[in-house]
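My hope is that you will study the record closing this message with an eye to the fold:
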Amino acid sequence: MFRLAAALPFLLLALLAGVPAAAAGLAGVWENRYGDNRGNTFVDVLELRAGGAYVTHLALGVTDHGRYAVMGQVLSFRSDQGPAASQDVRFELRGDVLHMTLSKPPGVQVDWHRSSRTANFTTVQRHGRAVPAGLRALVGRVLADQALPWRDDAVPTTVRVREAKGGGAAGYDVELRYYSPSARQAMVVRAGTFARQITVSDATRSVTLPLTTRFLDLPQVLDAAAAAGVAGPLKRADLQTFSKGSAWRVTLAGQPAVNFEAAGGQRLRRDISGYVNYDRADWRGAGALWRQAAGR
């Protein structure tokens, strides 16, 4: 099946004058599932909203949004990213399959299947950005649906939140990591608002300490940051367990990263990773060796 992501800097997008999507039976959620020759599975999701807006959530990290209209058998997409990402697409509705013939690249055909898929996470507005929420529930669902069927000793170790391609206005992607002690492997689940991409890799350089089950949701951490005098649009956030406990590390626009205790939200000013102590020990050890070599 054609992999939509290959076409996508150009794909899908916004409103010219036309028939409302709901009247054409197109409004709703559509998905395109495909795989690669290494056994990885990808799902792209297209939202055609009844009001004339669309959003694409692609497994390979490309997110687009804009407005669209139906004109006869043509879907006219106009992307918020501009003309280069906009196009007119011929379509045919075949029951629960939306068949498209693209103009960029010319002649490429894609079948979207009507989906009952729900969003991986909800969003909450913080400082003008739609920030992912419900992350603890997402970690639990992915553990039950994907990680435990993969390895029955898998545990969640990391949550990473990053701006989707196109910046904060395009939303955020969430990466979850699970570790299997018996297999010494890591499962990485990259989740956009709808799409998920799952890969498995050697865990030699992966975090292996399990997350606390009681971590605060990301919007609560941002509220704690604002109460501590650190506020602004979110750039990135990381949750993991260090030798001294689990912590959120949050980076806001134009500001250095700040650490917060994962369960309580208290700001942490100490070194949570242990690297500072390790570095100091290395310096002391190296200094002692040099002094010994110098006979002092």
Remarks:
- The chain has two domains: 4-114, 122-275.
- The chain is about 15% helix and 40% strand.
